[in-house]
Amino acid sequence: MPVIVNGDIMTAENVREVFASTGCDAVMIGRGAVLNPWIFRQTKHFLATGELLPDASIEERVDLLREHLRLSVEYKGERAGVIELRKHYSGFLRGLPHVSRIRMELMQFTEAAPIFEHLTKFLELYSPRPQPA
What we know:
Layout: E1 4-6, H1 12-22, E2 26-28, H2 31-35, H3 39-49, H4 58-76, H5 78-85, H6 89-93, H7 99-107, H8 112-126
Parallel strand pairs: 1-2
């Protein structure tokens, strides 16, 4: 019978520790994926190479948040899709500059258009710019 471990799996390192300490066949990740949508990619790479991947870039985070917002609105309708996605802002934006203020601003909206506009402004302000040669 396969043994699957679940609970407080928040990082790629947690996954390796659970495999090593329990000898389980698989690990389920729940809340860890809400707080870190890149945990599956990071875990796969870490288990294969022993190296941790760098955090997702600002552009990657915002692009994925936009895509999730688009799909949420498409699936649930605009108001419900926007409200449903609110719980994911912290995971997508964690550790970025001025994230508390930005998250609070995004929470005010019930339509997708102003969220897309806010995310575009956020990228313009905080995305690393190439340095002149």
